[in-house]
């Protein structure tokens, strides 16, 4: 399939732009949202866990976490053994997450409007396979 990457990147950029517009109302960007999303989904988490999940360097997550702490959306907590530093959402963070999640759900519904359920299901099955192929290729080169 020719031009898949170009089509995907154009789509990706359009989605990120729309998400950033929505999130900007709450002092967030998509990269900050990723941290909130992960911690909401997984519960108290380490920066390494978040960095591994998104396949980014830990300093990138550290900067994001610092900004979210400044906005009082996340806070540090001790781990069970006390050696690792973990973060969790604050009450304000949970509230901002809920508001943003509703708006993002609306956007998801808008962009998927008119697409039959079977095509949506196919897409939701294909995208993780593409990601796995990319990740496997990186592992083969190590």
TrEMBL record:
Domain (HTH marR-type) ranges: 1-132
Keywords, alphabetical: DNA-binding, Transcription, Transcription regulation
Matching InterPro entries: HTH_MarR-typ (IPR000835), MarR/SlyA-like (IPR039422), WH-like_DNA-bd_sf (IPR036388), WH_DNA-bd_sf (IPR036390)
Alphabetical list of PANTHER family matching this protein: TRANSCRIPTIONAL REGULATOR SLYA (PTHR33164:SF64), TRANSCRIPTIONAL REGULATOR, MARR FAMILY (PTHR33164)
Record-given protein name: MarR family transcriptional regulator
Organism encoding this protein: Neobacillus paridis
């Amino acid at each position: 399939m020719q031009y898949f990457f170009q089509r995907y990147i154009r789509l990706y950029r359009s989605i990120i732009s729309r998400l950033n517009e929505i999130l900007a109302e709450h002092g967030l960007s998509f990269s900050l949202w990723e941290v909130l999303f992960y911690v909401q989904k997984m519960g108290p988490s380490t920066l390494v866990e978040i960095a591994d999940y998104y396949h980014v360097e830990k300093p990138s997550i550290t900067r994001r976490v610092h900004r979210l702490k400044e906005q009082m959306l996340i806070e540090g907590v001790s781990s069970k053994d006390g050696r690792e530093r973990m973060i969790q959402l604050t009450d304000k963070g949970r509230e901002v997450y809920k508001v943003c999640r509703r708006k993002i759900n609306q956007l998801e519904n808008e962009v998927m409007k008119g697409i039959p359920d079977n095509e949506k299901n196919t897409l939701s099955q294909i995208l993780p396979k593409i990601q796995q192929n990319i990740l496997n290729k990186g592992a083969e080169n190590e």
